[in-house]
Every structure is written in C-alpha cells, then in structure tokens.
Amino acid sequence: QVQLVESGGGLVQPGGSLRLSCAASGFTRGYYAIAWFRQAPGKGREGVAGQRTSDGTTFYANSLKGRFTMSRDNAKNTVYLQMNSLQPEDTAVYYCATQTYASGSNWYGYDVWGQGTQVTVSS
After folding, report:
1. What is the DSSP letter of 14?
2. What is the pLDDT of residues 45-94, one digit of tens each?
C-alpha cells in the first residue's frame, strides 16, 4: 500500500525553527509530485511547498518563500520541510501529499495524503 508518514512536528517558540519529514513507501510506480500542505482550525487547506519529480523543480507559496525550504533525500525516500522564523500564524497541521498522476497543477490533484503532524508556534 502507498503510504506517507509525516514526523517532526511539535511546539516551538516564535522565531524558532523546525524540520518536518515525510517518508514515502509503496509507490511502486512512483509519483508525479510531492508537496506540503497545512491546515489550521477553522481555515482552509493551504499549499506550502512542493517538488515535481520530472525535473526536480521546487515550488513555494509566495507568502512562505524565503522562510520555508523543501529538500529531498532520494536514498531514504524522504522529503523535508525546513521551517525558519516561525510565527504563531504558522500553527497548523502539516500534511505531506503526492500526485500519482500528472494533474498539470502544482497545487491540485494530490490523491495520496499522510496523516499530518501538528506544528504549534507559541511562547
């Protein structure tokens, strides 16, 4: 079975940093793209960052570019999200998701999702 497992969330003070991990397994046919999303209580799901498998291009939400960095370790089948200068508004459940087909969009068509990891930014 295909599976995405996020880890690394927790409590961090404003201005602090955190690195999230997403381990992928069971993707016998691979995936077209992998991305991070987040959702805070009472708010809609927001795209954070992602990477296309075809050319390795990494893309970011405009509001987060410069603070968040996505990277990948192919040997471990794991992607990471380095989050710096965290603020309370970054508090959310962060999800990893993949496109198992080419949707043609950076932010739509994600059909496999992890369970999420909670990030809380508070003093």
Report:
1. T
2. 999 999 999 888 999 999 998 999 999 998 999 999 999 999 999 999 99
**Dihedral angle, C-alpha 114, 117, 118, 121, nearest 10 °:** -120
β-pair type (18-25, 10-12): unpaired
What pLDDT is attached to residue 121? 98
Contact 2, 25 (CB under 8 A): yes
SS3 89: helix
Any residues with CB less than 8 A from the CB of 119 and at least 6 apart, and which? 9, 10, 12, 18, 20, 38, 83, 86, 90, 91, 92, 93, 94
| 2-17: pLDDT as tens digits | 999 999 999 999 999 9
Question: 44-50: long-range contacts at Cβ-Cβ below 8 A with a sequence spacing of 24 or more?
Answer: 45/95, 46/92, 47/106, 47/107, 48/81, 48/94, 49/81, 50/106, 50/107
